[in-house]
Write a structure and sequence with these properties.
Blueprint: E1 2-3, E2 13-19, H1 32-45, E3 49-54, H2 58-70, E4 77-83, E5 86-89, E6 92-95, H3 108-113, E7 116-117, H4 118-127, E8 132-138, E9 168-172, H5 194-203, H6 210-226, E10 235-238, E11 244-245, H7 266-273, H8 301-304, H9 309-322, H10 330-337, H11 353-366
Parallel strand pairs: 2-3, 2-4, 4-8, 8-9
Antiparallel strand pairs: 1-11, 5-6, 6-7, 9-10
Helix pairs in contact: 5-6, 9-11
C-alpha cells in the first residue's frame, strides 16, 4: 500500500469476499456471486490473498471469517467485500446469510442472532492489529423482511450510516435510505450490479486514491441510476490518515512478473506500420484509439467493415490495453507504449460485458 507521502510498506494484504444470491427464505438475487468473483479477481491482481465465499449460510460465514481473521497479523491490511442482502436494525448493519429465516417484525432479536454484524467484524479485525481496513458493502437493497403495509424488521430500505474507528475506510453501494440496483432492467446483460461494474475499473486505476475511487464511483452510479429514473448515490466514510492508492505499486503472487521484451525488428514493424493509425497529437486524444468508446458502446459489423487485419488486431487489443494488460508480443507492447493512458499492471485483466462482446465480434472478423 502506498500512502500520500510516497513511503511503501511491506505489510500483507488479505481480503474476505462474499457474494450471496441463493437465499432460501427471502428474495433471491441475481448478481451478488458474480460481483464477488469479479472483485476477488481484481483484488488478487492488486496483491491481496483472497478468501472467497459464495452463498454462505451463517455457520459457513462464521467459520470462513474465523480462518481469514486468524491469518491477519499486526500492521496488515484487510479488505472486506460483501454483496447480498443486508438490513439495518437499531442503527447497526447486519449481513444476511442465505439460511436466515423469514422473521416477523417482533422478531428483530432473532434476526440479529442469525445474521452477521458489520460492527463486530470491524472490531475483530481491529483486535488483530490491522493497520488499514477497507469495507465495501453492496448490500443496500430493499429490506427482504418487509411485509405488506410497510411493516418490517429494521429499516424499510438501505443500511445505516457508519461510525468507524480509526484506520477504517467504508464504501456503501447506496446512500442511507436508498436501494442499490442489482440491474438496470430485466434485459440488462451486464453480469455485475450497477455499483460493482462502476467500482472495479476505478479501483484498478493506479492513479486513483481510495477517496477518488469513492467519488468517481458515486458519480458513475448516479448517472447510470438516473438513466432509468432511479436515485442511487454511493456513500463513503473515511477514518484513515493520508491517502491510499491500492493499485499503485501493487504486486500479486498469483501472476507472473512482467516480461522485458526486446524491441520489434524493422521487418516486424513494417508489416503493420502502414495499417496503424498515426501517432496521436496532444490536441486529439481520441486518435489514441481506433474505437475510443469500445469500453462503453457495442461495436457493429458496419463499424468493422473495411478495416485491415492489422487494424482489427489493434482494435481488439486496445480493449485489453485500456484495462492495463501486459503484452508478450513486442509489436503490441511497443505500439501501446506510445500512449500516456497505457499503464500495464497485469497479464489477465477483467472486461465488462460490452468489452467482452466487442472482443468476440472483432475476433469473428479476424477469423
Amino acid at each position: 500500500m502506498l500512502l500520500a507521502t510516497g513511503a511503501a510498506r511491506a505489510e500483507n494484504r488479505f481480503a474476505f469476499v462474499v457474494g450471496n444470491d441463493a437465499y432460501r427464505n427471502v428474495t433471491q438475487l441475481q448478481k451478488a456471486v458474480n460481483d464477488s468473483r469479479a472483485v476477488g479477481r481484481s483484488l488478487q491482481q492488486l496483491g491481496f490473498r483472497v478468501t472467497q465465499g459464495e452463498n454462505l449460510a451463517w455457520r459457513d460465514f462464521v467459520e470462513k471469517f474465523s480462518i481469514f481473521e486468524n491469518s491477519i497479523q499486526p500492521g496488515d491490511t484487510a479488505f472486506l467485500f460483501y454483496s447480498g442482502h443486508g438490513v439495518e436494525i437499531d442503527g447497526a448493519n447486519y449481513l444476511i446469510p442465505v439460511d436466515a429465516p423469514r422473521v416477523a417484525p417482533e422478531q428483530q432479536s432473532l434476526l440479529k442472532d442469525v445474521s452477521i454484524s458489520t460492527d463486530n467484524l470491524i472490531q475483530r479485525l481491529k483486535a488483530r492489529g490491522t493497520r488499514t481496513q477497507i469495507i465495501v458493502l453492496d448490500a443496500c437493497r430493499e429490506n427482504p423482511f418487509r411485509q405488506a403495509g410497510g411493516r418490517s424488521v429494521g429499516g424499510a430500505r438501505g443500511l445505516a450510516g457508519a461510525s468507524l474507528p480509526g484506520g477504517v475506510f467504508m464504501i456503501y453501494s447506496a446512500g442511507v435510505g436508498e436501494v442499490a440496483l442489482d440491474r438496470l432492467s430485466d434485459s440488462d446483460a451486464n453480469p455485475n450490479s450497477v455499483f460493482t461494474r462502476s467500482f472495479l475499473p476505478l479501483l484498478e486505476n493506479p492513479d486513483n486514491s481510495l477517496i477518488a475511487v469513492a467519488k468517481q464511483t458515486r458519480a458513475a452510479v448516479k448517472s447510470l441510476a438516473g438513466s432509468i429514473g432511479q436515485t442511487q448515490s454511493p456513500a463513503y466514510y473515511d477514518e484513515i490518515d493520508g491517502e491510499i492508492f491500492l493499485a499503485k505499486g501493487s504486486t500479486s503472487s498469483s501472476l507472473p512478473p512482467p516480461v522485458v521484451l526486446p524491441p520489434p525488428t524493422t521487418d516486424t514493424q513494417a508489416a503493420i506500420r502502414s495499417d496503424l493509425p498515426p501517432s496521436p497529437t496532444p490536441a486529439s486524444p481520441d486518435r489514441d484509439f481506433i474505437f475510443p468508446d469500445s469500453d462503453r458502446i457495442r461495436l457493429t459489423r458496419d463499424m468493422l467493415a473495411g478495416l485491415s487485419a492489422a487494424q482489427l488486431r489493434i482494435a481488439r487489443n486496445e480493449i485489453f490495453a485500456r484495462r492495463g494488460r501486459y503484452f508478450r508480443d513486442p509489436v503490441l507492447a511497443q505500439y501501446f507504449s506510445r500512449f500516456n493512458w497505457y499503464r500495464p499492471y497485469a497479464w489477465d485483466v477483467p472486461l465488462n460485458a460490452v468489452e467482452q462482446a466487442n472482443v468476440a465480434l472483432i475476433g469473428s472478423f479476424e477469423r
